[in-house]
Specification:
About 40% of the residues are buried. The chain is α/β, with parallel strands linked by helices. The model has no long low-confidence stretch (mean pLDDT about 100). The strands form two sheets. Strands 8-7-6-9-10-11-12 form a seven-stranded parallel sheet, with helices on both faces. It is built from 13 helices and twelve strands. The protein starts with a strand and ends in a 10-residue tail after the last helix. It has two domains: about 110 residues, NAD(P)-binding Rossmann-like Domain (Rossmann fold); about 180 residues, NAD(P)-binding Rossmann-like Domain (Rossmann fold, 3-Layer(aba) Sandwich). It is elongated, with a radius of gyration of 21 Å. It binds NADP nicotinamide-adenine-dinucleotide phosphate. The site of NADP nicotinamide-adenine-dinucleotide phosphate has 28 residues, from helix 8.
C-alpha cells in the first residue's frame, strides 16, 4: 500500500530517506503519478512534490485520500492552492532554510554584474591579460542605491547583506515594515525611480505576474541593473531584453526565467547580463535541509500532529 508518494527528481540521499523513513514510492513526474494504477492512487495520503509543473485540482482528484502536498522549495506557485483548499488538501513548503543561499547568490550576481567578473575570468584564462591587454574599468557597487521589490524572508536577507555594502536601502512590500531606516515606497515604479539597482524577491504566481513591467524598467533607467532571484513570471522578459539590447537598461543578473530551463536565446548574446541556472538554493547543506523539512512535514502529518510550515 502506497500512503506516501514522492513526485519529482530527488537526490539519491533524499530518495533513500523518503523510502526508508516514510515508505514512499517515488515517480519522476506528475504524468507518471497520474499513470499509476487506480488502486495505488486510492491509498495515497501525502505527496512529496518537487518540480515546477502545474499541480492542479484535476490531478489532486486522482488521489481521493490525499490530505497533504509537501512542496520541496519555498516557492509553491506550481501548486494550485485554491484547488487544494477546496479539496481540504493541506500544502506545506520549505521556508527559511534557504534564505542565506538565495541571498548570497543575489549579492554575488550583483557584484559579478557590476565588476564584470565573468568577463574578467575569461580575460585571465584566455591569455589576454598575459598578452598585455588591459581589462576595462567597470562599475562600483558599494554605496549605491538599491531597491528590494518584496521585503519578505529572502528580501530581508538580501537587504541586510547590501546594507553591509554601505548601500542606501529602499523597498516595496504590500505594507510598510519595521526597518533600520530604509525607505518604503508604496508603488514599484516609485521604487525603481529612486534606485540604480533593483532586486526582485517576490513570490511567483498570478498576483505578481509581470510586476517588473516596462514602466518599472524605464523608471530604473539606463544606469539601472535588475537582479531577479524570484520567479521568471515576475518580469516582463520581452521588455527586459529589448532594453538590455538597446541600452535603456544597463544590465541584469538573473537566476530565474520565464521559459526555464530553455531560456530565451537573446539572453546568451548579451554582454551586460549575468545568467544563472536557477541555483539559488543549490548548495549541499541547504538542499539537504529542504529535503529534511519536506519529510518532517509528511512525518507529522502521518502521525496526526500539526504541520510545521503550512501555507494552505
Ligand atoms: P516570503 O517571505 O513570502 O516573501 C515574498 C514576498 O512577496 C514578500 O515581500 C511579499 O510581500 C510578496 N508577496 C507575497 N504575496 C504577494 C502578492 N499577492 N502580491 C504582491 N506581493 C506579494 O517568501 P520568501 O521565502 O522570501 O521567498 C520569495 C520567493 O523567492 C519564493 O516565493 C520563490 O519564488 C523565490 N525563490 C527563489 C529561489 C531561487 O533558487 N532562485 C529559491 C527560493 C525562493 P509582503 O512583504 O508584503 O508580505
Amino acid at each position: 500500500m502506497t500512503e506516501v508518494l514522492a513526485i519529482g527528481s530527488f537526490s539519491d540521499v533524499d530518495a533513500a530517506a523518503l523510502r526508508d523513513d516514510l515508505g514512499a514510492r517515488i515517480v519522476d513526474s506528475l504524468d507518471s503519478a497520474a499513470a499509476l494504477h487506480e488502486e495505488t492512487r486510492a491509498t495515497v495520503r501525502a505527496i512529496a512534490f518537487k518540480g515546477h509543473a502545474t499541480f492542479d485540482g484535476a490531478l489532486m482528484d486522482l488521489f481521493p485520500a490525499l490530505g497533504l502536498i509537501a512542496n520541496y522549495g519555498v516557492g509553491y506557485d506550481a501548486i494550485k492552492v485554491a484547488d487544494a483548499q477546496t479539496r481540504s488538501v493541506a500544502v506545506t513548503n520549505t521556508p527559511d532554510v534557504l534564505n542565506d543561499d538565495v541571498a548570497d547568490l543575489a549579492v554575488g550576481m550583483l557584484i559579478a554584474q557590476c565588476r564584470r567578473m565573468v568577463q574578467g575570468d575569461d580575460h585571465a584564462r584566455s591569455g589576454a591579460w598575459a598578452d598585455g591587454q588591459e581589462f576595462p574599468l567597470n562599475r562600483k557597487m558599494s554605496g549605491g542605491r538599491v531597491g528590494i521589490l518584496g521585503l519578505g524572508r529572502i528580501g530581508r536577507e538580501i537587504a541586510d547583506r547590501l546594507a553591509a555594502f554601505k548601500m542606501e536601502l529602499h523597498y516595496w512590500s504590500r505594507g510598510e515594515k519595521q526597518t533600520p531606516g530604509w525607505t518604503y515606497h508604496d508603488d514599484p515604479v516609485a521604487l525603481a525611480n529612486a534606485v540604480d539597482y533593483l532586486v526582485v524577491a517576490l513570490v511567483g504566481g498570478p498576483e505578481t505576474e509581470g510586476m517588473v513591467s516596462a514602466e518599472v524598467l524605464d523608471a530604473l533607467g539606463e544606469n539601472g541593473v535588475l537582479v531577479n532571484i524570484s520567479r521568471g513570471s515576475t518580469v516582463d522578459e520581452v521588455a527586459l531584453i529589448d532594453r538590455l539590447e538597446d541600452g535603456r537598461l544597463a544590465g541584469a543578473a538573473l537566476d530565474v526565467f520565464r521559459s526555464e530551463p530553455g531560456i530565451d536565446p537573446r539572453f546568451a548574446a548579451l554582454d551586460n547580463v549575468v545568467l544563472q541556472p536557477h541555483q539559488g538554493s543549490g548548495t549541499h547543506v541547504t538542499r539537504a535541509a529542504m529535503g529534511q523539512l519536506q519529510r518532517d512535514n509528511i512525518a507529522v502529518f502521518m502521525a496526526g500532529r500539526p504541520l510545521l510550515t503550512q501555507v494552505a
